[in-house]
Write a structure and sequence with these properties.
The complex is a heterodimer. Chain A is mostly helical. Chain A has 10 helices and no strands. Chain B is an alpha/beta fold. Chain B contains 15 helices and 12 strands. In chain B, helix 2 runs parallel beside helix 14 and helix 6 crosses helix 8. The chains are: A mainly alpha, B alpha/beta.
Chain lengths: 332, 374
């Protein structure tokens, strides 16, 4: 084995190139198979959701999306009436607010870690940020309920007492301070998606070719100008990708949200009032649902599926559009 | 020490197996003597008599149930005591009334437990008729978080209904102030908390509101999961309690035992006779006694807001549901034995866990219907 004669080795080599050709084929077809499997899974999921939801789809049609009434078969006054609007609203608004908070912080962290931070700080800080991603969502939920909400209460009470009467801002802080609210949900979500945005953005910024950086400095650019100009522009499509990853997480997050959002079908502007999202509604009701309620919940799941697909498609378009504009981008 | 116990357990097992074996053998020979028919029918009859044989040897059967979380502490205690007394193991999953009914319908458990009797739709879904038995009564308390306010604020059904419909919005509302003369009530907004999951506690609570307020009856109604006009939804007693604790001005409904264990302050509620009554075990028994006439006609009749000067109005029974004809006769017989025990010895354990024991006449009624089980 150890002392192989030279001619034998060359034979072995030839053998291996022959093997390589066949293994190449196997490799090609198997990877193709795996990709097809993923596609098949998504299609199968969609079809299953549709067929489970079809009684509700036939009964309520597209009006389901705009109706706000959700009454189970056990409700004596208006049994088996379902509408998804408060949950669609809750999902979109909580995710949007979470992005609003997490994008500046996440991007700032990424820029600092990739460009500015001293070497000794980089590794521990990156580790900390990535650690946030490893915390299970039920822990975020518990933390939100036991730590964050009590800490938010004074602020919420103050906002409820004072901001209510301010003309435009008041709309966002109307009603009583309830603790479990859209505000708490958006904050918890923002913390949960922060590591995704910052970790991916950091990698993207690091991947910008050093020539870009050096060219900018060579032209007399300051550090800030170099980052603002060539670096961020080159990394832009990758950063958008990072944000989309965070958004996808935010749209689907269930456990933590259910624990802090207050589970009430409100679609008003107030950040202080409790709300509900598509996934929190599913989590709360699915265990005990049957018949019409189950089918309506499947319809909700289908809507969430649709929203995720639309968001991802928009993101792809955006990235594609950008990479066409920026020539010489590292991430085409 | 442990080794000795293991040996003893092993010996007991061997003995039990030997007994069961004997029973099985005799049954088989009986079956063989009975019929000289085809071998398939012979096999079938021998297995069925095998089952009935195993019931005569005690300790061979185990039972399973699922359902309400409300009586779970009491049931756990019952099953533990019964296992010690009769050596029959009963597993109970406290998954919620709705899920319990679902499992009963699917026949994956021997009995279901719910705080709300089966509605027409649920009855229609069952494969065969089910017997519903009240097992104990429980009170639902109105817990509140109002810094500086007195303990045991006085409340009426009408005021609670208005709070839960969102028409009373602040604690210093004249309707609440009039009930509590002299109490210092702040201007704090009321934060309403209710269950977000289908719950027997909600059923008991909304039954009371529907009987105390006509507005509630026509606009919301009594249900395990009504369409709440306002408020925060919490999952389980814990979800409601934490929503109440966190919001100054919070109000919510939880079961008595839960409120006591967590040190929540709760209201005295006006009953049908106009008295303000604090929720206690005795006051809950009084409620059940006050509703005797309607319960004797139909055991599933709600008892909330019954008459009686000492009755606490927000109370209800919790029920066990068993198939009238058990799928597995051996398990059916074991369950029958257990239910009889629960109606007699079991009732004595209720009060210590903050559940009200059933009045004597309802126990008698139950025992009669247990006898009809097959």
């Amino acid at each position: 084995m150890i002392a192989t004669p030279p001619e034998k080795r060359s034979l072995f080599k030839r053998q291996s190139t022959l093997d390589a050709r066949t293994t190449d084929g196997i490799f090609y077809w198997s990877t193709l198979g795996f990709s097809a499997l993923v596609l098949l899974l998504v299609a199968w999921l969609g079809i299953q959701l549709y067929s489970a939801a079809s009684p509700s789809i036939h009964k309520f049609g597209l009006g389901f999306l705009t109706s706000s009434m959700w009454s189970t078969s056990d409700d004596p006054i208006h049994p088996d009436t379902y509408g998804a609007w408060p949950y669609i609203y809750g999902t979109l608004v909580s995710s949007f607010l979470a992005l609003l908070l997490a994008v500046p912080i996440g991007l700032g962290t990424a820029i600092y870690l990739a460009e500015l931070a001293p070497k000794w700080l980089r590794t521990p800080l990156s580790f900390m940020v990535e650690l946030l991603a490893a915390v299970p969502s039920v822990v975020y939920g518990l933390w939100g309920r036991l730590v964050l909400i009590p800490a938010l209460m004074p602020l919420q009470t103050w906002l409820s007492d004072h901001a209510d009467s301010v003309p435009v801002v008041g709309r966002f802080f109307g009603g009583a301070a309830t603790g479990q609210s859209m505000m708490a949900a958006a904050l918890v979500l923002a913390i949960m998606i922060l590591p995704f945005i910052s970790a991916v953005s950091r990698e993207v910024i690091k991947a910008v070719p050093p020539t870009q950086r050096e060219a900018a400095f060579g032209l007399g650019a300051t550090h800030w100008e170099a980052i603002k100009g060539p670096i961020l522009r080159t990394a832009r499509s990758g950063i958008i990708g990072a944000i989309i990853l965070g958004l996808a997480r935010a749209l689907g997050e269930t456990m933590a949200i259910t624990m802090v959002i207050g589970n009430a079908p409100n679609a008003d502007f107030s950040l202080l009032s409790p709300a509900a999202t598509l996934s929190s509604k599913l989590a709360v009701e699915f265990a005990e649902a049957s018949g019409g309620q189950q089918s309506a919940l499947m319809y909700l799941a289908l809507v969430l599926f649709g929203i995720t697909i639309v968001v991802n498609a928009c993101a792809r378009l955006l990235i594609w559009n950008m990479s066409r504009q920026v020539k010489g981008s590292t991430r085409a | 020490m442990i080794f000795q116990r293991l040996c003893a357990a092993g010996a007991a097992l061997c003995f039990a197996a030997a007994l069961a074996g004997c029973g099985g053998n005799t049954a088989e020979t009986n079956a063989a003597n009975d019929a000289n028919s085809a071998s398939t029918t012979n096999a079938a009859s021998s297995t069925s008599s095998d089952n009935s044989a195993s019931t005569t040897t005690e300790g061979a059967t185990s039972l399973s149930g699922a359902g309400a979380t409300f009586p779970a502490p009491l049931y756990t205690k019952w099953f533990d005591s019964y296992n010690q007394a009769k050596n029959i193991k009963i597993d109970y999953q406290s998954v919620g009334s709705g899920a319990g009914i679902k499992q009963l319908t699917a026949q994956t458990v021997d009995f279901g437990a719910s705080d709300a009797p089966l509605n027409e739709k649920e009855k229609a879904a069952l494969p065969s008729p089910v017997l519903t038995l009240p097992t104990a009564a429980g009170a639902v308390v109105i817990a509140y978080n109002l810094p500086g306010a007195p303990k045991n604020l006085k409340m009426t059904g009408d005021a609670i209904a208005k709070i839960y419909m969102g028409t009373i919005k602040t604690w210093n509302d004249p309707a609440i102030a009039a009930l509590n003369p002299g109490a210092k009530l702040p201007t704090t907004n009321i934060t309403v908390a209710h269950r977000s999951d289908g719950s027997g506690t909600s059923y008991i609570f909304t039954n009371f509101l529907a009987s105390a307020s006509n507005d509630w009856k026509t606009k919301v109604g009594a249900s395990k999961s009504p369409t709440w006009p306002t408020g925060i939804g919490g999952k389980g007693n814990d979800g409601v309690a934490s929503a109440v604790k966190q919001a100054p001005g919070g109000i919510g409904y939880v079961e008595l035992a839960y409120a006591k264990q967590n040190g929540l302050s709760y209201a005295s509620v006006q009953n049908k006779d106009g008295q303000f009554v604090e929720p206690t075990v005795d006051a809950t028994t009084a409620t059940a006694e006050g509703a005797l006439a309607s319960v004797q006609k139909d055991v599933t009749a709600p008892i909330a807001n019954s008459s009686g000067a000492k009755a606490y109005p927000i109370a209800g029974f919790t029920y066990l549901m068993v198939y009238q004809t058990a799928k597995n006769p051996a398990k059916g017989a074991a369950l029958k034995e257990f239910l009889k025990w629960a109606m007699t010895d079991g009732q004595k354990q209720a009060a210590a866990l903050d559940y009200a024991p059933l009045p004597k006449s309802i126990v008698d009624l139950n025992l009669k219907s247990i006898d009809t089980l097959k």
